[in-house]
Each structure stands twice: as C-alpha cells, then as structure tokens.
Design a protein that fits this description.
EC number: 1.4.3.13
Catalytic activity: L-lysyl-[protein] + O2 + H2O = (S)-2-amino-6-oxohexanoyl-[protein] + H2O2 + NH4(+)
Shape: elongated
Largest sheet: 7 strands, mixed
Strand content: 15-25%
Number of strands: 33
Distance between the termini: 94 Å
Number of helices: 9
Radius of gyration: 32 Å
Helix content: 10-25%
Pfam families: Lysyl_oxidase, SRCR
Function: Mediates the post-translational oxidative deamination of lysine residues on target proteins leading to the formation of deaminated lysine (allysine).
Organism: Falco tinnunculus
Oligomer: single chain
Structural class: alpha+beta
C-alpha cells in the first residue's frame, strides 16, 4: 500500500506540474486543449522497377520504416503523399505491391484523404500500426515529375540504403556491348548516382539464377571467371555488396541475404573479384544457331502452358493443357513462386507480378488447377502440388495471371511512332502483316525494299493509338450447337434480308416472291472477356441507317458465317452486320452500359454478352445450294480486325456438321484455340481453317 500511495502522489504532482506549466505558457486569448506532440514523419519511394517519381510508399514513424496498405486507397491519398515527397501532385497510384513487397511494419491502413491535407496523418485511417494487411498489399504512388518550388528535400532520403533495388548486367566484351539482349557481364547495383559491384566471395549458381531471372532469362550457365579476372584487375572498382546468399527462388536480389561494405571500400574483396553472370536466353530472345536449336526442340511437342490476353510479351492469363483441352488456373494461393515457375517454363525470367482476380481477362472452358503451391525450383507448373477443381470452388473471375521479367531489347528506340502525318517525308514500310506476337514491326511480314506507296505523300501514312487494355470477344460455342436447325423460309419474307446481302448469290435468280430459301439458323452469344469495352470503330455520325429493318449498323461486317468442306473449300457463306451491339445480359455485379434503343451508344461491356437470337433476320447461312455431306461450320467474330482485341486467335468457332439433304446435325463445337494441336488435327485436315491467324 505504501509503494502504491507513493506512486499515486508522484503521478498527481506530475499532473499538477503539467497543468501549471500549460496555464503559465498558454496564450490568454486563445485557450485550447492540449495535443500530443506528433512524431516527425519522413517519407521515401522504394521498390523496383521504378523511376525517381514513382514507387512503393514508405513512411518513417516511431523510429521505424514501414509501408501503407492499399485498402481503400485513392488518388487523393496519392496527392497528399506526393506533396510530402516534394512533387506538385500525383498522376496515379498502384496496388498489390506493384513495386515489390516492403518489410517491417504496415503503418497505415484504410487511409481516406480528401486531397487537401497537409499531412497523411491528418487523413482518416485505422490508427498507426493497426492493419489487417500483408505486404502483398503495399501501396505505391506515381507522382507528377514536377517539383514544388523551393521544396527542401527532407523527405527524399539519400542515406545508406538497407536494400538493393536496381540491378544491371554490364557487358565488357567489345562485341557484346553492341548486342541485345545482354546475356553476360558484370553484375552491378545502383548506388547513389552511379553503379557499384558485388564481391564474388561465396557466390554460387543459385545467386546467378536470381540475377538472370531479374534480367528476363530462365536459366544461368557457367562463366569464364579467369578471363574476367584479367579484365577487372585493370579497372577502378567500387564494391557495394558481399556475402550474397540466395536460395534461387527469389524474384529479386533484394530478397536474398547480403551485407554492405561500409566506409572506405578500397581494400574490399581482396580475395575475390566482381561478380560475373552468364544467362541462357529463352527461345524468343535466342539468336543464331542457338535460336534454331531451341526452335527444333519446341517443334518436338506442343507446350502445355501458355499466356493469353496480355498487352505485352511475357504477360497474360495463365492457361494449361489437360486432356487435350486448354483451361485456366484459379488464383487461390497464387503467388510469385508459382508465377515464376510459369515464366521460366515459357522462356522468360522470374515473375514481376502474380496477378489475381482475372486481371488479364477471363478465360472460357474448364478451370484445370486450384491452390497451386510451387516451391519455385520446379521445371514445370505441372510438377507443383495443386488441387483439382470443382465448379463450386472457383469461377473465371478468379483466373490467375502473370507478368514476367523479359530481357531489355531496346525496341522502344526503333521506328514506331504516331505523329502528325503532315511532316512525313519518307515511307519506310508497306504491306505490313503481323500475327500479334512480334516484338517489333521489323519482325512482321512486309514488302521489304519494294515499297508500294513510296511517292504517295502523307495520304497513306499509318498510325496507331496504344492502350494497355483491350477487349476480347469470344463466341459461346455450346449455344450454337444447341440452337442449330434448318428452316425453309418463303422468299416473300426475305426482302429485307436480300437488301442486306444475307442470302447467297443464287437468290438473285430466284422467282421472287415464289419459292423459298433453305437456311441454317443458330443463336450467337458473344462475350467480352477482355479488359476494355468493345466499341465500334466508327462513330455514331457514320453509322448507316437501314430502313427495311429500321436500325443502325455500327459495323458493316461483325461476323462471318461459313460452311466448309473438310479440305477447306467454302460452299456457303453468310455475314452479320452489327444490327446493334448492346449488353443483353451481364455477369453478377456488372452493370449494363450499352443499349440500342433511341439511338443509344453501342458496344459490349467487359463481363457482358450480346445475344443474337436464331429467329432474327440474317442470323443464318443460306445453304440452299449445299449438297448433302459432312462439313465444317465456322463463325468468325470481328473478321476484318476493325476493332482492337487482346487476342484474335480465339475469335473463331467451328463445329462438325452432317447434312443429309433434309436434316442437319451440328456437334463438337468449340472455340478456335480451345483444343490441343493434336485434337485440332483430328478435327481438320488442313491448316488455318480454325482461326483467323495471318499466314
């Protein structure tokens, strides 16, 4: 009791002293409540890969660096943080640890700024250190590259950093300096305004594997250390790291253990030399004989994994081949280790991002794998533990995707720009035909030196508008199979259809209005599984009004319908103008945006589909002149590539047809790239029938 009483008296004296001090020092005219002194906050941008005005946000609070969770993050939050860092404003923000996962505490969560606050601490949040997030949710910002006038860089931390971010391979052999990609060289890390080396004492192949993965290469190989030792003995070196130890599954060198050299490094690494790494390129980036050898190896069998729907090489939705059918992967437990196995299997480096929630668009067909848990050392994703999927477990809204590290090729320094054509003085390419996977226009088919429009002036200058996202249309194949039937339709009911060229050419010779045409009718349900709405190329001002059907055509040809013989000969054809592109139905939680009534906007929203029922005009193929036999029914959406899509290989659908002159059987309908190459060969007897790939 005595000790407790003494403690209570001490507390009371301290409290009274505090009150006396406050009363004595307070302004007599503006009394107010006391405020706990706010700890000094510091901020920095970190992570990889990034520019100086973007990165993962790290905040120094309570003598410890930590991160901010991306839950409820907004552009207003980014504005406040960018001003903290001395930039005038933010242009964007990033979620899901785009710039890599931080370490330490997650200081803030559910941050909600209005945008005008002077400090992030003035914004609403859950409280310092109160978070239910992991570092996979670290937020980043992209600041406008304009500094606040007179701003003192107190928050741009230029101290001895405790982590490594930017890494490069510096070629030293004269010939290698001019070649891209750089596959061999001295490993260097960014340090202040220059580059520094790593001591190779204790360096092993696992470390090299990590570096090669960062550089976009799937594997490493041994290097002639003696050659480089002679070279580096004559160089001025600046060592930064030593004692690097990687497991080999890390996606970045910063995730390995290492130590920094401190102070004067002139005597560093006396028993070693700078780290030198040599990498093995994937098939896309190999050159010369090595490239041909890789191609031969690939031709021996079809790969069982692919990326679809990405805007760039090395990114996309992950699809795997099982039982001769392509399917997707559910994103449960999807992480960088599994994503890196995918990337390396495809000939890229380690993964930059493991994307969830169908960030690269939704697939169709089966979901083959769930809860994939790779160690990171596997040669193939199929070697990783996973669960077989049931329909209740996952939906295509959970399709997993990846972004892989790819080698720097310098293609952004070449020939491809979009500009005001009035200044064009020379044409350099004509007849360009790309399949879509090429990394440069020079890799596509073209006329070479035989230019077709050398002296035509600017009238035929090509241009592009680039986007990170695009639509992706797919036809629902089972519905075609379920709804196909034959109708003998009287000619007097086909005048409007004839006006829109929906009948075969022989119809012009018929004895109108007597007789009939035999029509193969079916429904088309066209889904947009991409990442951007599908909009007609032409604006509303140029849509064509068709009085007979009383509607506008926003696209003259939206689909092609063909009946083909097994050897590829076309025996009947039809086409479908876009009577009206609209959202007939949408997935749950997706709102319709387009409808044709009252001259409304036309298009198909992401996650919605447009349904052309079998009983509307022109939703058919005129088979009046087709003889009995076995045929292929082929439907191609957006056949003239008028509207950009992330993937054109899935725009075609085909079915087997058996016609006996009275009835028709339609079966085995599937999307163009849904089956394995072997299954397609069993289905078709000639190449190119299945899809609209450019040959």
């Amino acid at each position: 009791m005595g000790s407790c009483g003494t403690w209570a008296w001490r507390e009371l004296l301290v409290l009274l002293s505090s009150v006396w001090l406050w009363v004595g020092s307070a302004q007599p005219t503006l009394p107010g409540p006391t405020h706990t002194p706010r700890p000094q906050l510091k901020f920095r941008l970190a992570g990889y890969p990034r520019k100086h005005n973007e990165g993962r946000v790290e905040v120094f609070y309570n003598d410890e660096w930590g991160t901010i969770c991306d839950d409820d993050f907004t552009l207003a939050n980014a504005h406040v943080l960018c001003r903290h860092l001395g930039f005038v404003a933010a242009t964007g923000w990033a979620h899901s640890a785009k710039y890599g996962k931080g370490i330490g505490r997650i200081w803030l969560d559910n941050v909600n700024c209005a945008g005008g606050e002077k400090s992030i601490g003035d914004c609403k949040h859950r409280g310092w250190g109160n978070s239910d997030c992991s570092h996979e949710e670290d937020a980043g910002v992209i600041c406008k590259d304009e500094r606040i006038p007179g701003f003192k860089d107190s928050n741009v931390i230029e101290t001895e950093q405790s982590h490594v971010e930017e890494v490069r391979l510096r070629p030293v052999v004269s010939g290698a300096r001019r070649q891209l990609p750089v596959m061999e060289g001295i490993v260097e890390v960014r340090y202040k305004d220059g580059w520094a080396q790593i001591c190779d004492e204790g360096w092993d192949s696992q470390n090299s594997r990590v570096v090669c993965g960062m550089m976009g290469f799937p594997a490493e190989k041994k290097v002639n250390r003696n050659f480089y030792k002679l070279f580096t003995e004559r160089q001025q070196l600046n060592y930064r790291l030593h004692s690097v130890s990687c497991v080999g599954t890390e996606v970045h060198l910063s995730m390995c253990t290492f130590e920094f050299y401190r102070g004067n490094t002139s005597a560093a690494c006396r028993a070693g030399m700078p780290v030198v790494v040599s990498c093995v390129p994937g098939p896309l980036f190999a050159t010369g004989n090595a490239h041909k050898k890789k191609q031969r190896q690939q031709q021996q069998g079809q790969p069982r994994i692919r990326l679809k729907g990405g805007a760039k090489v090395g990114e996309g939705r992950v699809e795997v081949l099982k039982s001769s059918e392509w399917g997707t992967i559910c994103d449960d437990r999807w992480n960088l280790l599994s994503a890196s196995v995918v990337c390396r299997e495809l000939g890229f480096g380690s993964a930059k991002e493991a994307l969830t929630g169908a960030r690269m668009g939704q697939g169709m067909g089966p979901i083959h794998m769930n809860e994939v848990q790779c160690l990171g050392t596997e040669k193939s994703l199929w070697s990783c533990p996973f669960k077989n999927i049931t329909q209740e477990d996952c939906k295509h809204t959970e399709d997993a995707a990846v972004r892989c590290n790819i080698p720097y090729m310098g293609y952004e320094n070449l020939e491809t720009w979009y500009w005001d054509a009035s200044n064009v003085t020379e044409m350099v390419l004509s007849g360009v035909k790309c399949a879509g996977h090429e990394m440069s226009l020079s890799h596509c088919q073209h006329h070479g030196t035989s230019l077709n429009c050398r002296n035509t002036g600017t009238r035929f200058a090509a241009g592009v508008i680039c986007s990170e996202t695009a639509s992706d249309l797919l036809l629902h194949a089972p519905l075609v199979q379920e709804t196909a039937y034959i109708e003998d339709r009287p000619l007097h009911m086909l005048y409007c259809a004839a006006e829109e060229n929906c009948l075969s050419s022989s119809a012009r010779l018929a004895n109108w209005p007597y007789g009939h045409r035999r029509l193969l009718r079916f429904s088309s349900q066209i889904h947009n599984n991409g990442r951007a709405d599908f909009r007609p190329k032409a604006g509303r001002h140029s849509w064509v009004w068709h009085e007979c059907h009383r509607h506008y055509h926003s696209m003259d040809i939206f689909t092609h319908y063909d009946i083909l013989t097994p050897n590829g000969t076309k025996v009947a054809e039809g086409h479908k103008a876009s009577f009206c592109l609209e959202d007939t139905e949408c997935e749950e939680d997706v709102a319709k945006r387009y409808e044709c009534a009252n001259f409304g906007e036309q298009g198909i929203t992401v996650g919605c589909w447009d349904l052309y029922r079998h009983d509307i005009d022109c939703q058919w193929i005129d088979i009046t002149d087709v003889k009995p036999g076995n045929y292929i029914l082929q439907v191609v959406i957006n056949p003239n590539f008028e509207v950009a899509e992330s993937d054109f290989t899935n725009n075609a659908m085909k079915c087997n047809c058996k016609y006996d002159g009275h009835r028709i059987w339609v079966h085995s309908c599937h999307i163009g790239d849904a089956l394995s190459e072997e299954a397609n060969k069993r289905f078709e007897q000639y190449p190119g029938q299945l899809n609209n790939q450019i040959s």
